[in-house]
Each structure stands twice: as C-alpha cells, then as structure tokens.
UniProtKB/TrEMBL annotation:
Region named Disordered: 220-257
Binding site for ATP: 34, 38, 82, 87, 95, 101-103, 122-127, 174, 380
UniProt keyword Membrane present: no
Annotated source species: Triticum turgidum subsp. durum (Durum wheat)
Taxonomic path: Eukaryota, Viridiplantae, Streptophyta, Embryophyta, Tracheophyta
The protein's name in its UniProt record: Endoplasmin homolog
Biased composition (Acidic residues): 220-247
Keyword list, A-Z: ATP-binding, Calcium, Chaperone, Nucleotide-binding, Signal
C-alpha cells in the first residue's frame, strides 16, 4: 500500500516473534485466549472511561460492549473484534512492536531454557502468540481520539501502519485478522472455536459471539416437497422423519431443517464472585483461578476464601492462595507496588494496580474484590483515598489469615488435629501435608508479616512453623513447641537461615575454626560474609583483651567456642557459586578449603585475630 509507513520491531520483540514462529509447541490454542483477554481489557478500559465521560461510549452498535468472532473459510481468515477502547496510531506503534515490556526479555530467556509457552500472558506479551497460528496478521483499530488505522506484519522483523481507507468503519474498537497458516486450518471450524471459548474464556465479563451456522426447524407446506427439490435453493434442507400420526389428522405442512447464520452467544458471563459459594463447584473455582492468574497449568490453587462483607462497607471477595510462589515474589519486594487483586465497583473493573488493598506481605494472594459501597464516578486517584478502603483492607487481611489458618487445621499432619475423631481424620486425608506445602512456598511472607503488621502479629505467630531439634525434620508450631518444652525451660534457642542445608554445610566445613553458628544474613550488601560475636560472646576487642590474659589454652578454648557467628550474604556471587557447587558435591575437600579461606578473610576484616590452630587442636 502506498501510504504505509514501515517500522522495525524492537530487537527483543523480534527475537520473541522468531521463537513463536518457529515454536514446535503443540498447544497453539492459547492465542485465542490471549486475544479475547486483550479484547476484554480494552472493553474494561472504555467502560471505566465512560464512568466519568458519558460521551466516550458512543451510540448505537458502538456502545455495545461485546466481542465478536468471525470465520472466513474461503480466505482462511479468523477475525476477533471488540468494541473496546481501541488504539491510536501512536498506541499501535508503541504497544505492538517498538516498546519492549519488562516481561519481553524475561520471557525470551524462559523460552530458551525450555520454559512453557502457555505462560506467555503472565509476561505481558500475549499478543504475539497470534504467530503460532498465523503467518500474516492485520490489526484494524479505531480509538475515539484518532482515525482508523491498520497495523500489519508478516513477522519478518518489521510492521507497517496505514490510515484505513478500505475496511468497514469500526465505530470504535479493534479487529484482529489472522491469516491462518495451512497447519492451523482447524481454527476455521466453528466447533473448535466454541470449545476453546468454553475452555479458556468462560469467565470473561463481556458477551462473546461467534458468527455461527445454525440448523433451524422450518414449517413448510407438505406439497412443496417435490417442487422444492427442483428449485435452485441456497439453503440445505433435510427431511424430518415421518410421524406415525394417522393420515387424516396430519397437517398439510411438514418440518424441515434449514441452515442459517447468526451471532451465537458462547459464554454466560456469570461473575463467579457474585454467586453463592454453595453454588460454585471446586472445579469452577480452579478454572476461575487459572483465568485470573493467566496460568493454565494443571495445578489447582492451594485454597481459597469466598465471602461477602456486610455493614457500613459492603463488598464481595474471592481470594486464592496460588499453588506456587511466583518466581519474582521477593525480588524488589519493598519497591514494587505489585498487587494481584482486581478491584471492581458494582461489577465494573476499576484496577488491578491498587497499592493499598492488601499489605505487601500478602501480595502473593490472587483474587477479586467487588464493592457496592465505593463510588463509581470518580477517578482512580480519588478512589484510592476513599475511607472505605481501610475497612476493606482490614477485613481482607482477617479473612486471608483465617484461610491460611484453616489450611493448617485441615491438615492431618498438623499437631492441632490431635483432638479430631477418626472419621474427621479420614475425611481430611487428602489434605495431608498441605500446610507444609504452604509453608515452603509462602512461609517467608508470614515471617515478613510478623515484622510489618503489628496489629495481626498474634494471629500471624500462630501460622509460624519451625524445625526443632526434636522434631525430626517435621515442622512444628510455637504452641506445639511450648507444650513439649521440659518444665523449667525458660528460653527457646533458635537458628535462623533460609535453609538448614545451606548453613549445616558451612558449620561442618568450619568445624576446626572455632565457630558457634552460621546464619544467613540479609543486612550484607557487598561483602560475602562477616564474623560477629553472638549476643553473649565477646566483641573482637574483648577477645583481644582475653587473649592477653594468662588463661590456660583449655579455658580460652571454652570461652572462644560458641561465641562466634558467621553471617553469610546469600546474594553475594562467591556465596552463590559456592552454594551451587556444594549442591553437586557437598563432600568436596576443595570447597571446604574455599569456605575456610572466605571465613578467615572475613575474620580478619572483622578485626578478629586469626585463631591459632593449636587453640583448637584438641577439639
Ligand atoms: P498485555 O495484554 O499483557 O498488556 P499483550 O501482548 O497481550 O500484553 O498486548 C499488548 C498491548 O497491546 C496491550 O497492553 C494493549 O495496550 C494493546 N492491545 C492489544 N490488543 C488490544 C485490543 N484488542 N484493544 C486495545 N489495545 C490492545
Ligand atoms: Mg494480553
């Protein structure tokens, strides 16, 4: 086209597209889910704009917030159209090609190490999955603030944008036209598309229509039968079986099947969270979780809580504990404003970037909050300040902690179950080990909560689990520990660290170095480790003074032993490398030697004297 402007894809985007085009990934279905999810996002956006600007919605068909799917079998084109917010020319250039999102390179990296393409939506690059099934894609889009444009690309490193002077005007919204590859012809089958929408897009809150053929019963005069066969007819007709009614009563008409085409609604748009918990099946909850999390694996959520709050502030909420912690949960924990809660006001999606619905330590929860109390026609900024949010947050925290506590209560491995009857116990058998699983994935969040949330500290403390010296590898709660304490025991001694193995190895490697304990430290930045004296031990100065005294070697040793603590920085490259190697061969003498060198360097830098080996020779 003459007026087309050409653009190069940003380098990372281009690599991503190459990977997708050449992918042998067999589950190509996912592209449809990604396109419908984008259409739904665009509809959410225009609906939100309409709250404060009634004009934005438009009139007639343009105002219909819906998604339409159409097949053109002859030309092998599958089109998905929405009446969402649309894209301006600038949006098309930025969003579909020239600006890489943070997820782009992360996803490319994942793919190169055998990651699952299914997770593409989580990385914010779902659109490009169209190239799993198409070799040429057109995006026609009309935004309220601009003319209608066409974006097109054959995934050959570049895309073109032209002002649209030939397609039907969209009014507003976006139509994606996929020119399907030969191997992807199955997506021209209506049945296939219906199945896919059912499977992946059941929970989309806007109607999804398919331009579908349909057989309808039509009454025709019975004597038309013969002549109709001779007529040139474009509609297909098949004869109904004769009824056994006797001749005389038989009307002079008969029923034939005719094929017509019409918009067929594929989803029922019942918002799961508005339904009564009694009516929602476990499977529906699991499927809803998958669509929320953009994670379509087989793992079910660990648990969920579905409730409604009444009183001054009314809202419904559905919270999920995911099956696994996301890979970046604790990276940039204090900087990122990441929330996985979607906020709705009276079924209208408002935002999934509200900072203050849940405290940071609960940011691993996924879910939805839908409030009737919050006002609809104010900006996000004003909503963010609304006093009801504090109440909502408070209730959400309580419910979240209750939900986690129940995970433990229902787990037969847990101490708290000792008072359950045998029947109750057998009913809980399938929940065996679920709390330990939770603790492994999210235990750190509970610990962070203890630090951050003074109000709920007692509730959180009940959720803590530790390995104790007597627990034989099992996790115990504080209550359980205390109930087993010997009478007269006043103190609880504890070791800290993110993993017992990582510190055990160091203790062994430094066995001859006179060290009491090793712990993982989060306060270090550029040093691999430091040596400190434990609370009741000596400072390095004190140690020097003691060494100058005329004490017997044996008593020096007694003093020195059990006083020094080695703090290790788990993020330091030396420590990381060592840890990786130890994981492969924990008995290696060479590695132990390295550990001793690292320790001795830290010892000198911390102002301690190097221990005289003979001090410890007898140990
Ligand atoms: P994500 O949806 O996670 O942002 P995608 O790769 O699926 O990532 O989409 C990229 C961007 O392209 C979207 O953020 C949006 O700005 C734009 N976009 C894609 N599809 C549409 C659409 N149907 N209507 C409006 N904008 C769209
Ligand atoms: Mg998307």
């Amino acid at each position: 086209r003459n007026s087309a402007e050409k653009f190069e894809f940003q380098a990372e985007v281009s690599r991503l597209m190459d990977i997708i085009i050449n992918s042998l990934y067999s589950n190509k279905d996912i592209f449809l889910r990604e396109l419908i999810s984008n259409a739904s996002d665009a509809l959410d956006k225009i609906r939100f704009l309409t709250l404060t600007d009634k004009e934005a919605l438009g009139e007639g068909d343009t105002a219909k917030l819906e998604i339409q799917i159409k097949l053109d079998k002859e030309n092998k084109i599958l089109s998905i159209r929405d009446r969402g917010v649309g894209m301006t020319k600038e949006d098309l250039i930025k969003n579909l090609g020239t600006i890489a999102k943070s997820g782009t390179s992360a996803f490319v990296e994942k793919m190169q190490t055998g990651g699952d393409l299914n997770l593409i939506g989580q990385f914010g690059v779902g659109f490009y999955s169209v190239y799993l099934v198409a070799d040429y894609v057109e995006v026609v889009s009309k935004h309220n603030d601009d003319k209608q444009y066409v974006w097109e690309s054959k995934a050959d490193g570049s895309f073109a944008i032209s002002e649209d002077t030939w397609n039907e005007p969209l009014g507003r919204g976006t139509e994606i036209k996929l020119h399907l590859r030969d191997e992807a012809k199955e997506y021209l089958e209506e049945g296939k598309l219906k199945d896919l929408v059912k499977k992946y897009s059941e929970f989309i809150n806007f109607p999804i229509y398919l331009w579908a053929t349909k057989e309808v019963d039509v009454e025709v005069p019975a004597d038309e039968e013969e002549s109709s066969e001779e007529e040139e007819s474009t509609t297909e007709r098949t004869e109904e079986e004769e009824t056994e009614d006797d001749e005389e009563k038989k009307p002079k008409t008969k029923t034939v099947k005719e094929t017509t085409t019409e918009w067929e609604l594929l989803n029922d748009m019942k918002a799961v969270w508005l339904r009564s918990p009694k009516e929602v099946t476990e499977e529906e909850y699991a499927k809803f979780y998958h669509s929320l999390a953009k994670d379509f694996g087989d793992d079910k959520p660990m648990t969920w809580s579905h409730f409604s709050a009444e009183g001054d502030v009314e809202f419904k909420a559905l919270l999920f504990v995911p099956p696994k912690a996301p890979h970046d949960l604790y990276e940039s924990y204090y900087n990122a404003n990441k929330s996985n809660l979607k906020l709705y006001v009276r079924r209208v999606f408002i935002s999934d970037e509200f900072d203050d619905l849940l405290p940071k330590y609960l940011s691993f929860l996924m879910g939805i909050v839908d409030s009737d109390t919050l006002p609809l026609n104010v900006s996000r900024e004003m909503l963010q300040q609304h006093s009801s949010l504090k109440t909502i947050k408070k209730k959400l925290i309580r419910k979240a902690l209750d939900m986690i506590r129940k995970l433990a209560e229902e787990d037969p491995d847990e101490y708290s179950n000792k008072e359950k009857t045998d029947d109750e116990k057998s009913a809980m058998e399938e929940k065996k080990g679920q709390y330990a699983k939770f603790w492994n994935e999210f235990g750190k969040s509970v610990k962070l909560g203890i630090i951050e949330d003074a109000t709920n500290r007692n509730r959180l403390a009940k959720l803590l689990r530790f390995e104790s010296s007597k627990s034989d590898g099992k996790l115990v709660s504080l209550d359980e520990y205390i109930s087993r304490m010997k009478s007269g025991q006043k103190d609880i001694f504890y070791l800290t660290g993110s993993s017992k193995e990582l510190t055990d190895w160091w203790k062994k490697a430094l066995d001859t170095e006179g060290i009491d304990s090793v712990k993982i430290s989060n306060r270090l930045h550029n040093t691999p480790c430091v040596v400190v004296t434990s609370k009741y031990g000596w400072s390095s100065n004190m140690e020097k003074i003691m060494q100058a005294q005329t004490l017997s070697d044996a008593s020096k040793q007694a003093y020195m032993r059990g006083k020094r603590v080695l703090e290790i920085n788990p993020r330091h490259p030396i420590i990381k490398e060592l840890r990786d190697k130890v994981a492969q061969d924990s008995d290696s003498e060479g590695l132990k030697q390295t550990a001793r060198l690292v320790y001795q360097t830290a010892l000198m830098e911390s102002g301690f004297n190097l221990p005289d080996p003979k001090d410890f020779a007898s140990s």
